[in-house]
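Quarterly update from the structural biology core.
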Amino acid sequence: MPRRQGSDSRRKRPQDKRSRSHDERGGKRPFAGQSSEPKQELTPRQVKAVERLLSGLGVPEAKPFKPDPFQLEALAAIEHEDVLVTAPTGSGKTWIAREEVRRLLPLGKRIWYTTPLKALTNSKYAEFQAEFGTRNIGILTGDRKENSNAPVIVGTTEIYRNQLFDALREGFNVDADLVILDEAHYLADEDRGHVWEESIILSPSRIRLLLLSATVGRAQEFANWISEVRGTKVRVIKAGPRPVELRAAYISEDLNLYPLFGEDGGFNRDIDAVTKKPKREGGGYRRRRRF
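Predicted structure, tokenized:
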């Protein structure tokens, strides 16, 4: 029998008990992903482990900036040869690029700063504008083209590679004296690595290359290949230990924090106890409530 128009749509449906803001006992519903089980208390040993994990976190004391030896070495080398800098995140790789830009700008030189991501390109564009002035910085990405005649161009690596292709086809020289390839380890990317490979091979040897990476593997082998295809000298410069320590942790369903690794350096087995599904006395797994 056809439904009478408007008959059911105006009828107020009974509220699903699971969707009420409070359960039958008057308690608040847990947030999505939060267990309704009582929160498990950490043992004194586990509390100490968390305290060790969080110790030392905070804002460091302000001190005058002093360049690291690897930064000064890179600046000295880039004046005469290509440079591959491999340094952990937070070591100050971008500082090298900024200081070289600062040196070259008064000399009337032109610089390309390439990144693999439009978001990172936009970020560097804003950062460089604030430091070197808006008239000195331009941006070229797939959807932005601003101040393209500026002495410093920030853009995606694909755009720089495309300019190299255009130069080959039309017979003109790429107007650049230094090209900075940030995140140079993208050369190993299965889908996009050819862009970095082509950018390195097609860049004229008169253009200095400064390659920056935190995760590049077999750096000397990489440098030897660059030297072979470009006919230039390539200096590999490595930073010291990571200045910003990495610490890994696991947040359980009841919002407790557990270090991912134990004191022995192995996997923290306390995590096993909170990730395994609890069993019923009669056997089998007890189904957790879902909301």
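Residues 17-25 have pLDDT under 50 and may be disordered.
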